[in-house]
Amino acid sequence: MNIEKCERKRTTLKPKCPNPLFEKWLSEWKKEASDKNSDLQYCFEKALQSLRKYPLKLNNGKECLILKYFGTQLCEKLDRKLIEYERNKRGYLLKKEIIEKTLEFINVSFIKPDARTHIIGNSISTLINKGLILKQECPAKFYLTEEGKKLAEELLLDLGNDFQNIKFSTLENVTLLDDIADKNVSPFEAPVKKSYTNLFSSLIKNVHCDNETSNQINEQKILRFGSDFILDKSFQYSDLIDNDDDKFKNLPQNIYLCKPEIDALKKEMPSVESINNNFSDCAITVSNHTDYFEQLIFIPGDFEIVLLVDTQETTGNLRSRTTDDTIQELNNFKTKFEVRHLNIGDFAWIARNTEKKELLLPYIVERKRMDDLGCSIKDGRYHEQKFRLKQCGLQNVIYLIEKYGRETKLGLPINTLQQAIINTQIVDNFFIKHTNNHAHSMMYLSILTNQLTDIFKNKTLISCSKNNLPPFDVQDDIVSLITYQEFSKSSVKNKSLKVKEMFIKHLIQLKGLSVEKAVAITDKYPTPSHLIDTLKTHDEPELLLANIRYGSSSRNIGPVISKIIHQLYTNKHLS
Amino acid sequence: MNLPLYTLSESESEFGEVTDRDNIITTSNINLLHNDRKRKNKISGKKRKEKCEIAAIKSKIKDNDKEKDTKFLKPGECMQYISVRIDPHLLSANFGVELLLALKTADIQYDINSQKIPHTIFWSRKISQNSENNSKDSFVIIWSIKELISLISSKKLKSQIIEYITRTNNGFTLIIFGTDEYFRTRKKKNREGKVNFTNRVQLNTQNSKQENVYDLLNFNRFDIETALGEVQLLLNIQYKFIETEQELGLFIVQFTKSLAELPYKQEKSRRQQCVGWFATADSKECVHVDHNNNGLLKLWQQQLCQFPNIGLDIAQAIISNYNSPRTLMEAYEKCSTQKEGELLLQNIPVRRIQGPLTSVRRIGPEISKKVYLFFNNKNAEFSFT
Fold first, then answer.
1. With an 8 Å Cβ cutoff, are B282 and A280 in contact?
2. Tens digit of pLDDT for each residue in A14-63?
3. Could you tell me the pTM of the whole model?
4. Contact A423 B265 (CB under 8 A)
5. Which of A63, A170, B217, B347 is 20 to 30 A away from residue A89, measured at CA?
6. What's domain B296-376's architecture?
7. Cα B255 from Cα A184, distance rounded (Å)
8. ipTM of the shown complex
9. B22–A contact, CB cutoff 8 A
10. Quick one: CA dihedral A184, A185, A186, A190, positive or negative?
């Protein structure tokens, strides 16, 4: 038996000319180049050949990159041409396209960005009034009217290619434009290039461009400190660098700069650092925490409440994010949540408005499994953590205690842990919530999230700095909350310390010197250099600190400690 | 060195107290008999500290002549001065007996009086010979789960609680008794009901009317949690679920102890909060210096370790060149410019033992600058960023 083999041929569908537009333009450019006797014609020729060999449709210039003899420049040129073509096919322009094209034609470095768009807007309205452009629909689309088209063509004839090459950087060119204005013409080729005449006349009216301007603007930026600073134009930078004491004494004591101003200042005066160090009493304190505090106000209905889950509550692996318990449970309850790194606490809530600004609700949850609790008490982390929770700025602290494992294997006797929990409730005023297992904890959090959403949806939220926070009352219609940024920054575990704080830290290393005593000492001698200098010159150095009173009990520090500190900072040889 | 550990006494206090309470629950004592030496040392250390505290308070007494008041605050003795008042309704409940037994075992004075609010326990503390004072948490209200459910279903929970808040004049803690038991029996009944339809009908007619209502209500844990969540957020009331009588007795005893020691603890935490960070954690490994000045070097070394990037190796490197703060200060004084001072320590080699590749690295300009600024800056508010 013979199996007949059918002969099958493969048929290929080849479009005759897959990229007619590109071919057309390339040949046009080639012709231009050859007319000018430029070598570019050979480039275009090679590209054209290569394009003709390619059988598939190419959608834009960028795709042409795959072909040989097509470089980035050529592809960009093709792209631009394509956009224009599309646009012309379309027949209209959007406002931002107008602005873009406009800006190509003027050198407006001395006009502020806001002014530019304003001026262009004015020009467009003038053109509309003259009946040369039509504005339709929303977002605005600008069409050339019949009249506009006629004028555009006239202008093109008049000025030809020269028009494209005019750059209006000096005032002399404006006279040329005045001529054009007399002829009552409009930009050609589409309301892309706007009415230069109108534009420039308004430019000349609105902008006082002296040569001084650029320098003045820089100066103003840098001198715009604080509220007491005098905008003294004669105040030269060189004076600052010269370390002139007298000049400095006239400055207000603390000038707070925000970050953009700091950067500007640093650019102009690289030795700001040294100023800081040398002039401690009346230095320009570049403050870290006034990072441009803008007041946020959230109106009811404009924000949503989202639960923040600390990254340590979920497993670290990105892959296992989908299978992680916490995330799954929260998804079951359809809670809106987000995983983020929290500096303190395990769960928190934010109110986020449509501009993506975030305020923290005054609740923070610390989840503690029973074995965790035992460990942290033994480690000593327990009290420190509670301290940091109290200082974080969120007034309602919820301690979520989750049952886990067998009661005998928790590291400490169960009664101890229970007593510790009750102490936390009564002494530290935390809200204690006991749950049976992980799922129960997540259910609790979801319930709270829903209820918080209900409670806060009709409230107005105002941002406030941590120091000025009023006590939170859930019944208020207007509540002050701290921003997420401030919360993050202030609850960092190892904050940078000041000299006085570091000195306290040093002093408490001595056994018998408690925090209270150290604070009393540093109140009198804030830095080590103060103390050491006094010890050198005092007639009874051993008892220098003995009679300092500390704490509420007004007890003395005592001669023993005083002597030890004296020996520490005076002896040349320690053992 | 940079671990946030704190003095032994802090960690002892949590379970050290339990050992003092020989009269409380004996199981804890049994656990402690199996302790290792370390814990025993901690406890004795704690007792030592307590003695110091008591001595301190006694000396304060001599100074201030307020003898009567402070006696009531001492942790060892304050339990005697706290009294518990129990509402008789609670005794009739199934946990009543156990509750009294627990209190008796803990040697806590109590009396049974009809209170303003039913089902409450009220605490009162004697702060001086004649006056008493109550703190915010002085009330505990105990409800059975059924009462709670009836309030939730009749939507009177919030109003009832608000009424109690005004009557107690400060907050209170709510205890819900017997939740698990309730759900267990309900599940059982539902199961029985499902299996035998006719039986269910019989059951319904047999049970008392009240129980009937509660069984048919479709309450689950989610509903209860939701209702209580509202109570927490809107009314700021703490609540706790307790399942067995022993648990309840233990809770009341521990609550009493906590209340008794509250003033003492508040005073202690006030003392700790005079600085912006938890400074007590930084003095975990404090150095003892005796009257012969032994230990000063170790103290100097430990002080250097407090800088954030300075570890033991760098501290030792500095000490090998500058034996005391004095020598370091003198070296700084000899420097002619600030710049020189900042870089004084930068080239001191730091020994890093890594087996065959013992590399030598230096301290570096950053650390050198920080140390210089610390010792020479007159501005106490200057911040090391």
1. no
2. 677 888 889 999 999 999 999 888 888 899 999 999 999 998 888 888 88
3. 0.59
4. yes
5. A63
6. Orthogonal Bundle (1.10)
7. 92
8. 0.70
9. no
10. positive
